[in-house]
Amino acid sequence: MHLARATLMMCQFLVPVIEAQKKKGHYVCVCGSDDPDAQRLRASGIDVFCHHLQRSLNPFAIVREIFRIKKILIEQRIDVIICHTPLGGGVGRIAARLAKTPTVIYFAHGITCAPGQNRLKWLFWYGIEKLLGKLTDAILVMNSYDERLCKDHHFIKNTNKVLRVPGMGVNLDKFQFESDIAAGDQIEKELHIPEGKKILLSIAYLIPQKGVFVFLDAAREICARRDDMYFLLAGKGPFMEKLQAQSREYKLEKYFKLLGWRNDIHKLMRAADIFVLPTWYFEGLPVSILEAMACGKPVIATRHRGCEDAVLDDRTGFLVPVKQVGPLVEKMELLADDQSLREKFGRHGRKRIEKEFEIKYCTDKILTAIEKATVFSDKDKA
């Protein structure tokens, strides 16, 4: 069983893994939120069991859902549970131990005690991770920071069970390297961007930690002295209205476009000239960066966990300090003014994705890690 707080996450990232597990003869189901995404998974032939976890730390609600999930695990006689996301990872592991599920795996899409947090917050989440580690047979991680943290601090007893995987992978048929003139023309027409302007794209959940306000401030500084760069921000989140208000205050409505949720990310990627993600969120391995590189786009990201594992500085893009507008502006303008550098970074980025992050390659690595984790725990309990 795969478990996460939101079924959307499993729809977006886990279907290839689930299908590959089923082909190996395993019965695979999921436990997630009861919503249209759950119906989508059911329509594709995947059994879905639902909890009612919300994005909150209400202790009464959490305890209720722990026992709900425990009941599902016992009734379905689950042998291996793979818990995803921080809340799902915590609640799922507690429920699994109460249900005496034989193998409990935490698939960490970013360990909660992340760089950039204040010390007290980091220590709080560190304590939580250490406690939950006592309920965990194996941890799958996506980046070097999480791997070192889990091993050096012994988040689980046997650090050989800290297994690194190269993320969820990128569908290279969808995110293509060849330039798509039609897609570019369509996006430019839709958003009223004059032909020949440089398009800088960011895709993020709209919260400050994703660097969305840094992206906006960089756009403000650039647009104060030039009019050939347009900024697109796709995504939804609680700070949408504040971003819109600040964009109006900066008088950037023409140059800074808030796109909301989009189902055509691959088209946006192929229409863009540069991809930007100035995050300091608790990233695992940002999929948006990998998708941009697959489309042959140079990337500007932060020197931060996950981003450093995806972007090769000065080879597939640039890494800049977190929360600093000046260095971000410098790299944006450098790439906007140098087509040959953009093309060079784009070629190197595409080759890197083909070699290390193609979806089938990553799926095989994840399956191998899950099987290894399961063998480990079976051996330990023998």
Could you give the topology of this structure?
Elements: E1 2-3, H1 7-13, H2 15-23, E2 29-33, H3 36-43, E3 47-51, H4 59-75, E4 80-84, H5 86-98, E5 103-107, H6 119-133, E6 138-141, H7 144-152, E7 162-164, H8 181-191, E8 198-203, H9 212-223, E9 229-234, H10 240-249, E10 256-260, H11 265-271, E11 274-277, H12 287-294, E12 299-302, H13 307-310, E13 317-320, H14 325-336, H15 339-356, H16 359-381
Parallel strand pairs: 1-2, 1-4, 2-3, 4-5, 5-6, 6-7, 8-9, 8-11, 9-10, 11-12, 12-13
Helix pairs in contact: 2-16, 4-5, 8-11, 9-14
Question: What is this structure, in a nutshell?
Answer:
This protein is an alpha/beta fold.
Write a structural description.
By secondary structure, the chain is α/β, with parallel strands linked by helices. It folds into two domains: 2-169 and 360-381, Rossmann fold (3-Layer(aba) Sandwich), CATH 3.40.50.2000; 181-357, 3-Layer(aba) Sandwich (Rossmann fold). 48% of the residues lie in helices and 15% in strands. Strand 2 (29-33), helix 3 (36-43) and strand 3 form a beta-alpha-beta unit. Helix 2 packs across helix 16, helix 4 (59-75) packs across helix 5 and helix 8 (181-191) crosses helix 11 (265-271). The model is unreliable at 378-382 (pLDDT under 50).
